């Protein structure tokens, strides 16, 4: 997918894409906190600023120690937005956007509805953007491929009902874009 954004495209552009996906899903889910969700989407990976660039840009698999370090970005990000006096609703979005629906995520091993709705929305938006973006270790997947990969994780990583809504939105968008 030669038109795909790259992982060099972190920061504002990545935040805008994640926010766009998150806000579309939030609207479809009748989620009312979209102002804070937009802030959370733009800031969700701010904790990466405290991680070594060589770990973030590593072209191959991470070691167990590197993976533990990367997992700290949610806690670092939560601390940063707390110190900067962001709206209180933003902090759990940043802290919990890597929780998994089955309880196997991080940092708090929350499951199902224990995960704040905005964090579940960000989990889907962030994963979709990551899959459809060129990375140092692999090329971007197409929308269809990304949705297929994510479908296999619905109920484990992603809220299955929320993912089904997102999938329909993205499939409709793809059909409209190709018309």
Q: Mind sketching the topology for me?
A:
Elements (H helix, E strand, L loop, with lengths): L11 H17 L5 H10 L9 H4 L7 H8 L1 H11 L6 H7 L20 H15 L11 H9 L8 H19 L1
Helix pairs in contact: 1-2, 1-7, 1-9, 2-6, 5-6, 6-7, 7-8, 8-9
What does this structure look like?
56% of the residues lie in helices and 0% in strands. It is mostly helical and 179 residues long. Residues 1-9 have low confidence and may be disordered. The protein is globular, with a radius of gyration of 15 Å.
Which descriptors would you attach to this protein?
179 residues; mainly alpha
Structural category? mainly alpha
* Average pLDDT rating: 89
What's the main sheet like? none
Strand content: under 5%
Q: What's the overall geometry?
A: globular
- Helical segment count: 9
Poorly predicted regions are 1-9
Terminal CA distance reads: 19 Å
Spatial extent as radius of gyration: 15 Å
Helix content: 55-70%
Number of strands: 0
Give me the strand/helix succession: HHHHHHHHH
Brief overview:
The chain has 179 residues and is mainly α. It has helices spanning 12-28, 34-43, 53-56, 64-71, 73-83, 90-96, 117-131, 143-151, 160-178.
């Amino acid at each position: 997918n030669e038109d795909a954004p790259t992982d060099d495209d972190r920061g504002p552009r990545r935040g805008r894409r994640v926010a766009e996906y998150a806000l579309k899903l939030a609207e479809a889910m009748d989620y009312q906190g979209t102002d804070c969700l937009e802030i959370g989407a733009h800031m969700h990976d701010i904790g990466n600023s405290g991680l070594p660039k060589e770990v973030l840009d590593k072209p191959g698999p991470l070691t167990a120690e590197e993976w533990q370090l990367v997992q700290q970005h949610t806690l670092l990000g939560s601390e940063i937005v707390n110190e900067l006096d962001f709206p209180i609703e933003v902090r759990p979005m940043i802290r919990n956007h890597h929780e998994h629906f089955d309880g196997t995520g991080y940092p708090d091993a929350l499951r199902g509805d224990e995960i704040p709705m905005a964090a579940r929305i960000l989990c889907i938006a962030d994963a979709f953007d990551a899959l459809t973006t060129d990375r140092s270790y692999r090329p971007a997947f197409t929308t269809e491929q990304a949705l297929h990969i994510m479908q296999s994780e619905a109920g484990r990583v992603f809220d299955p009902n929320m993912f089904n809504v997102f999938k329909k939105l993205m499939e409709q968008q793809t059909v409209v874009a190709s018309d």
